[in-house]
C-alpha cells in the first residue's frame, strides 16, 4: 500500500524540484542512495563531485514541516544532501526556544546540516516586509556559507492567491499580480515546490505522518494585512463568488507572470534603441513605445541610478512617465534613494541628486 495521497503529492512536488535543481546545475543524479560526503580523491588526483546540498527554510509550521519531511525522504534517492534552516525573528517571547525545537525536529527527520539563525527585524516598509527582508537576508547568508545549490520554501497555492490579492490592492501592475515565482533569487536559489498544492494538503501530510507543527499566532493576528486577508477577505470572496477563487487567483498569477516576462524581454530589447550615443534616454523615441514597455525602461533606469526596487512604486514611474507624455516644463521628479529624474534638451536624465 502506497503513502497517503497528501504525502504522495508533497513528495512528488519535491522530487520534481530536485530533478530541476540537478539539471540546472549540471549535476549527476544518483539512482539509489546519496554518495557519502567528502569522497576521497581518485587515482591520479581527480576529486569526484561532492553531493549537492539543498536546504529547506522551516518555521515549524505545517507547510514547511511537510516540505522538510518530503525533502528528507526524496533527497537521498537522487544523491542530494538535505539540510535545514530556521530563522528566529525575535518577535515573540520564547522564539529562541521555538527555533531550537524546530532544529530538533529537522534533525529527527535526518537533515544535516541544521541551524537556527537569529535576526533583527527593522521597521522599513512595515512589520511584514521588514521581517521578510530580514528572513531572506539570513537565508542568503546560510546558503552561501554552506554552499547550498538551492533553498526550498513552503509557499502554497493559498499563499499565492493572497499575494495576488495584495498586489491588486496596491495597484502595482501586472508584475505584482504575477505573485511568487516558482524559481527566484540569485542564480535561481529559491525554489517553491508547493505553489500548485493547497495549504490543506500540506497540513494533512503532517497529520498522517504524525509530524508536530507550530501555528504562528501572527498568522491569526488581525493587525497583519495578510492575516486579515486570509481569515476574512478570501472567505468573503468565496462566499460571494463560489469555490475555486484560490485556484483562479493562482492561475491569474501564472498568466500574469508570462505576460510580464514577455514585456520585460521586449523592454530589454527596446532600451538600446531609445538611447543616444552618450547613453541618454531620448524622449521622442520613448514616447513612440507602448506605455507598458516604456515604463519598464524607466523603472530599470531608475533602479540602475540607485533607486531601491522595493521602494519604487507605480506612482513614481507614472510621474517620470509624464516627463515624456505630458511635458509642460515641469521640474525634476524626486525618487526613492535620492534619485532625480528630469528632462533636459529632449533627453531624460535619471541620476543621483
Uncertain runs are 32-39
According to DSSP, the number of beta strands is: 10
Element pattern in H and E? HEHEHEHEHHEEHHHEHHHEEE
Radius of gyration from the CA trace?
23 Å
> What number is the mean pLDDT?
90
Measure the end-to-end span.
Answer: 68 Å
Number of helices: 12
Number of domains: 2
User: What's the level 1 CATH class of the largest domain?
Assistant: Alpha Beta
Which strand order do you get reading across the main beta sheet? 3-2-1-4-6-5
Which term fits the overall shape? globular
The secondary-structure class comes to alpha/beta
- CATH fold name of the largest domain: Rossmann fold
CATH homologous superfamily of the largest domain - what is it? HUPs
- Proportion in helices: 40-55%
Question: How would you characterize the largest beta sheet?
Answer: 6 strands, mixed
Enzyme class: ligase
Catalytic activity: cytidine(34) in tRNA(Ile2) + L-lysine + ATP = lysidine(34) in tRNA(Ile2) + AMP + diphosphate + H(+)
Protein name: tRNA(Ile)-lysidine synthase
InterPro entries: Rossmann-like_a/b/a_fold, TilS/TtcA_N, tRNA_Ile_lys_synt, tRNA_Ile_lys_synt_N, tRNA_Ile_lys_synt_subst-bd
